[in-house]
Amino acid sequence: MKSLAKLKKIKGDASFREFYRNRKNKSIIVVSKKEKLKNLLIYDAINKILIKNKILAPNLLSENYIYNYIEINDFGDQTLFQILKNKKNNKYVIFKKIIKILNKIQLIKDKKVKNFKNKFYKVKEYNNKILFDETKLFCDWYAPKKLSKSKSIQFKKKFRLEIKKLLSKLKYNNVTFVHRDFHVSNLMYYNKKIAVIDSQDALIGNRAYDLASLIDDVRLKTSNELKDKVFKFYIKTNKKIDLKKFKKDFEILSVLRNLKIIGIFMRLAARDKKKKYLKLIPYAWEMINHRFKEQSEFNNLMLLLKNNFPKLIR
Predict the structure, then answer these.
(1) Which residues have C-beta within 8 Å of that of residue 314, sequence separation ≥ 6?
(2) What is the pTM of this model?
(3) Fold for domain 79-111+123-308?
């Protein structure tokens, strides 16, 4: 690993990974000492599933698991986030192309794959317990920073109850391949094609989740009109969907995801000293407010948040 000093370190993400560009090999070295099972072994296993299903994803070039790294394809520096930030580009046309990739991902039937240790990895279910634990990050990390200790304890009890109620209202079964962090910063534009990265958290879950993650993406501000257009295009390309059921699931999962994100961003700032994500929290609140308007199922949660965070819930 001495050779890492000669390689160019490139911008990382919110995970425990580090990335280095090897220009000679046209490759990326992914280094992960913490959570290396997920960040190296599972990441490659999920990429194998995507590649098998004709989705452009990083291919494993070499691995040295003992020394905490793998070497994968380099898809360059251009993310779809950068392309969409350019005002000259037609956002809707680009989102239509992304939906086509999402549709391909959602057709994946493979749940089992051999990893580079020659052992089978089975993609787990994205069950309600995982969804609940993720959403709980809001009351574990964000609420204690904003409320007094006694208020925070009271809030936690009520919040957990409301989240469990919302989860019980989900209609779609956990049968769809879910990337779980499907947004434009995890999509690369490479050789005029879209490549999917950062897929190590993939699970088998609700088909509305990745769409909510894409449309209500905290990193990219889009108009409500564009959000609706992209949603309608997805429905148009998936004719068998029960619109009423799906829309409800989409809105519930969007709210839960953005509550989770607020919790994660607060944790990144407090625990990992990564404070740059804090500036994204106001837009997460904005999207929660937007989805709250859509259905009466949210009334209790909305009141609870309004009583505790009055300046943020409208």
Answers:
(1) 289
(2) 0.95
(3) Aminoglycoside 3'-phosphotransferase; Chain: A, domain 2 (3.90.1200)
